[in-house]
Design a protein that fits this description.
The protein is built from 15 helices and three strands. It is about 55% helix and about 5% strand.
């Protein structure tokens, strides 16, 4: 059941913290979820404690997304009165110039929510200059913005609409890629709020239609499925797995065969029209913990696809196929196009 009350959110946060103790490799993902529930419950100081725990120099595992965690911490701090510290952290996030759009979005939206519209616009713009050069200009993107980059375009459009700024090429691109049936200029119109006090039925119906369009966009974003993922064992992990559970050798006759099977399976899924494919990397301790949580033995081969699905649901999947010049998923260090992607059509 989805949490609806502060007590529900606190209970869910505590459950996620306990789960993090069982799955150390998923600690970051689980504690970020726990912090979000604590924020929703109004326990913002406890959420900050979790962010600090992930960022601590002596943390058992180094955070994989420290800039994102800092941005989340800043947003949370500002909400319960620590404005100066939040601003300093946001300045640090901007100076770090992360290649991931998420920290930029969180920092800019935090500024926006506190009416720092000019600073929010600057932050959105800095991110786009780094990640998505302006359409039509030098270094313009060769492909459409990624799903993760789109909130930068939409957020910048929204803030500039509030500031009354004229459209530029990025605003035009935001309009072009928006899937909402209501134009962005209308969705982001600062005068929309006035219609809520109107007694004109036509104006109220129009506002209801706009709200329904926004809800549709949010539902579409929230309903993105996790990838259909294939399980990958690095060489050392596979050796450890087969040493502990020799009966699994029937599934994995050799590491080379294992890698070939992964690529062949993914290509077959792609040719059948299956979208959103990915690869998850397993570890023996994680797999053993998963088997224990299912009340099963690690030798049960039916657990392997379930384990892969669970890792994907926790956000552990890497998309497949990699771009041609990106490193191959197998860990060889070679470019995918010169490794397992050699025969990719």
């Amino acid at each position: 059941m989805r949490p609806d009350t502060p007590a529900d959110h606190i209970a869910e946060a505590e459950r996620l913290e306990r789960t993090a103790g069982l799955y150390p490799e998923d600690t970051e993902h689980l504690l970020l979820q726990a912090a979000a529930h604590l924020e929703l419950a109004g326990e913002r100081d406890r959420a900050t404690t979790l962010y600090d725990r992930l960022l601590a120099p002596d943390a058992p595992q180094r955070a994989s997304a420290p800039t994102l965690i800092r941005a989340l911490k800043a947003s949370n701090l500002w909400e319960y009165g620590h404005e100066a510290e939040a601003r300093a952290i946001i300045d640090g996030v901007r100076a770090a110039a992360p290649r991931d759009p998420a920290p930029w979005v969180i920092a800019a939206e935090s500024l926006e929510s506190h009416d720092e519209l000019a600073q929010a616009q600057e932050t959105f713009t800095e991110a786009l200059e780094l990640l998505l050069p302006q359409p039509g200009g030098e270094g313009a993107p060769a492909s459409a913005p990624s799903y993760e980059q789109r909130p930068l375009l939409f957020g910048r459009h929204r803030v500039r609409r509030l500031l009354g700024a004229e459209h530029d090429a990025w605003d035009a691109l935001a309009d072009e890629i928006s899937s909402s049936p209501v134009p962005l200029d209308e969705l982001h119109d600062p005068k929309r709020i006035w219609s809520l006090g109107s007694d004109n039925p036509a104006e109220l119906r129009a506002e209801i239609s706009r709200i329904q369009a926004e809800l549709g966009s949010y539902r579409e974003a929230l309903s993105r499925p996790f990838p259909v993922a294939v399980l990958h064992w690095p060489s050392a992990e596979l050796t450890e797995l087969l040493t502990a559970y020799p009966s699994l050798e029937s599934e994995y006759p050799s590491h080379e065969a294992h890698l070939s099977t992964i690529e062949a399976s993914l290509r077959e899924l792609a040719s059948s029209g299956t979208p959103n494919l990915g690869i998850v990397t397993g570890t023996v301790p994680s797999y053993e913990a998963f088997a224990a949580s299912e009340g099963a033995q690690p030798t049960d081969v039916s657990l392997l696809p379930q384990y892969a699905t669970t890792l994907a649901a926790r956000g552990r999947a890497a998309g497949w196929p990699p771009e041609g010049n990106a490193e191959c998923w197998c860990g060889s260090g070679n470019a995918y196009a010169q490794c397992h992607g050699t025969d990719q059509a």
